[in-house]
Design brief:
Elements: H1 6-15, H2 17-23, H3 25-42, E1 47-53, H4 59-67, E2 70-77, H5 83-88, E3 92-95, E4 109-113, H6 122-132, E5 138-144, H7 150-154, H8 167-176, E6 183-186, E7 189-193, H9 196-205, H10 218-232, E8 233-234, E9 237-242, E10 244-250
Parallel strand pairs: 1-2, 1-4, 2-3, 4-5
Antiparallel strand pairs: 5-10, 6-10, 7-9, 8-9
Helix pairs in contact: 3-4
Length: 253
C-alpha cells in the first residue's frame, strides 16, 4: 500500500485541526495510556530534553508536561497550526516531515503518539530515533496495528495507512537495533457510533481520511451506509474498531 504524501496528510489534518481535540477521544485515551506506561517504567523524574514528533493539538505534550517535566522541549509536526501547541508549552517548534528535517541534538526522551502508522517504513524512523537518543535515553511510541478500522477494511474502504504494525513487529524492529523493549503491547478497542454517517464524520473531524483519492458521491454514501449497517450494526448503532499499539524501550547507557 502506498503512503499518502506528507502534503496530503498535512492538508487533511489542517482541515480537522480545530475539531480534532474534541473528536479524537480514542487517540486521547491511547496517549494517556502511553504516558502511564512510560511513567510506570521510567518514573516521573525530569527529562533534560524531550523531542516529540507528530505533536498535533497536544494530547501527548499536555500529558507529558504533567507527568515528565522537561528542561527543554522540541516539538515537530507537518502542520503550521501545531505551532500553537509549541507556543503553549514554551517549546521549540520544527515544522516538516520528521523523516527529512534535522532533529535536535541528543534528546534523552523521544516520544510520539498516533503518527508512525502514516509512514511507509516506520522501522527506518525508529532506527533514526535509536541513533539520536542519548545513552540511557527512553523511547515511547504508540501507533496502530493491522486490525485498525477492520470494518472499513472488510468493506473495501481501507484508508491508505501503510505503517500499521502489531506490537510483536515493532518489538522485533527494536530488537534488530539492539534494544529490548520494556513494554510492547496492544489492544482492540471497538467504538460505537449512531450510524455509518457518524463514522465518516468522526474520520473527517480527526483528519484520518487523508489520502482518499476521490470525493464521496451520493451513490457511494448510500452503498457504504447500507453495507456498513448490514455487517456491523449493534443495538446502539455501528462499530468502528481501533487497534492501538504501545512501545517503550530504553537505550543502553
Amino acid at each position: 500500500m502506498s503512503a499518502p504524501s506528507p502534503s496530503a496528510i498535512a492538508q487533511s489534518f489542517s482541515r480537522g485541526f480545530s475539531s480534532y481535540h474534541g473528536a479524537a477521544t480514542p487517540q486521547s485515551a491511547i496517549t494517556c495510556e502511553l504516558v502511564e506506561r512510560l511513567v510506570a517504567a521510567r518514573g516521573r523524574a525530569p527529562a533534560d530534553h524531550v523531542f516529540e514528533f507528530g505533536c498535533g493539538t497536544g494530547f501527548l505534550t499536555d500529558c507529558l508536561a504533567e507527568n515528565v517535566p522537561s528542561a527543554r522541549l522540541t516539538l515537530n509536526d507537518l502542520t503550521d497550526a501545531a505551532a500553537l501547541t509549541a507556543a503553549r508549552h514554551g517549546a521549540t517548534f520544527l515544522r516538516g516531515d520528521v523523516r527529512t528535517i534535522d532533529w535536535p541534538g541528543v534528546p534523552d526522551l523521544i516520544v510520539s503518539a498516533s503518527t508512525i502508522q502514516w509512514l511507509a517504513d516506520p522501522a527506518t524512523l525508529l532506527r533514526r530515533a535509536v541513533r539520536a537518543l542519548a545513552p540511557g535515553g527512553w523511547l515511547a511510541v504508540s501507533g496502530f496495528g493491522p486490525a485498525q478500522f477492520t470494518e472499513l477494511q472488510t468493506l473495501g474502504y481501507a484508508l491508505p495507512v501503510p505503517g500499521l504494525a502489531c506490537a510483536k513487529t515493532l518489538a522485533s524492529w527494536l530488537g534488530d537495533l539492539g534494544l529490548d523493549p520494556l513494554i510492547s503491547t496492544e489492544a482492540l478497542w471497538p467504538m460505537e457510533f449512531s450510524s455509518p454517517h457518524d463514522v465518516l464524520r468522526h474520520l473527517r473531524r480527526t483528519g484520518v481520511n487523508a489520502g482518499r483519492s476521490r470525493p464521496w458521491t451520493k451513490r457511494d454514501l448510500a452503498a457504504f451506509s447500507s453495507d456498513y449497517q448490514n455487517q456491523f450494526s449493534t443495538p446502539r448503532g455501528v462499530t468502528l474498531s481501533y487497534h492501538p499499539v504501545w512501545l517503550i524501550a530504553r537505550k543502553p547507557a
